[in-house]
Design a protein that fits this description.
Length: 365
Amino acid sequence: MSEADRFYNFSAGPAVLPLPVLKKAQEELLCLTGAGASVMEISHRSKSFELIIEGAETNIRTLLNVPDNYHVLFLQGGALLQFAMIPMNLLNGKPANYVISGTWSKKAFSEAKLVGNVQSVWDGSNFSYKRKPSAGELKFETDAAYAYVCSNETIEGIQYQEYPNTNELPLICDSSSDFFSRPVDVEKFGLLYACAQKNIGPAGVTVVIIRDDLLERSSNKIPSLLNYKKIADAKSMLNTPPCFAIYMVKLVTEWLLRDIGGLGNMYEINQEKAALLYEAIDSSNGFYKGHADKEFRSIMNVPFRLPSEELDKKFQNEAMRAGLTSLGGHRSVGGLRASIYNAMPREGVVKLCGFMADFAQKNKS
Ligand SMILES: Cc1ncc(COP(=O)(O)O)c(C=O)c1O
């Protein structure tokens, strides 16, 4: 199988990776330069791997302009483990305030409830998770340990354009599905995290960016591998890290820096791709219906529906035959969803838009 056999893959995650990254990994798969073996076969304590993990961290710091008083950690357990680690490390007997804007923040809230005293300060279920809250709708408790948001709800396709102002309260943000999609001001956050398998690399590693003062909250009673402070002290190598996934993060971040030219450029590219797709929906005279309210539309995940479930299925099947794959909506909500992460080429979106116009033409009653 070769490059020509690849489909345009709209999966929400694990998701499409940049072609130059896959090629570089392929080139180095048998033997990493100077290591005499592949990255999967060398010690994580070796000089060769040290250069990889340090390189990945340096690239992340450059891309996001991470201030010196933040640590960058590489963890395992996916974003879901962060739902537990965040309250375990940061609550310290205090309450915490959660903004529930969709399926993933709801899940984070229910996991945190297993750990401590957390409250929901806003719940978008009354609006079918079609929008994020406005600043006026949010009131945080000043004595809370932190405020929690999800930057981009992957299932509902809604994204913050502006993050809430929490004043002194550390803002914790799940950015799993829009990390690296646009520049962000890391200083706004106490902790910003993302699983890799959408915009950062393959599944198996989670990136956590945490402000140094918050590390001091981790109690010694927390088991080591769940303890941010101990992991930070061990430079993310308390035990064997996911070496291959971290290597891929290094390649993806190199691609973002060298080929794309940074997150400002990436954002422009992403905005243009998203605009093309939303235009295909909006110009269909109601044949395609998007989920999110317009001003909260995600530039990463675009859920939409056709006039019937039967047509949803037909669309998916025909799209697959046209080389456009993984367009099914999340199993919890159905419908369709096109995830257009950083690595989805513009041509893939253009092809999808063309297919949509054609399909609507043929199937309009
Ligand atoms: C916003 C968001 N948070 C959390 C998760 C859970 O990630 P993981 O499967 O790495 O635990 C996902 C997965 O799709 C997600 O989209």
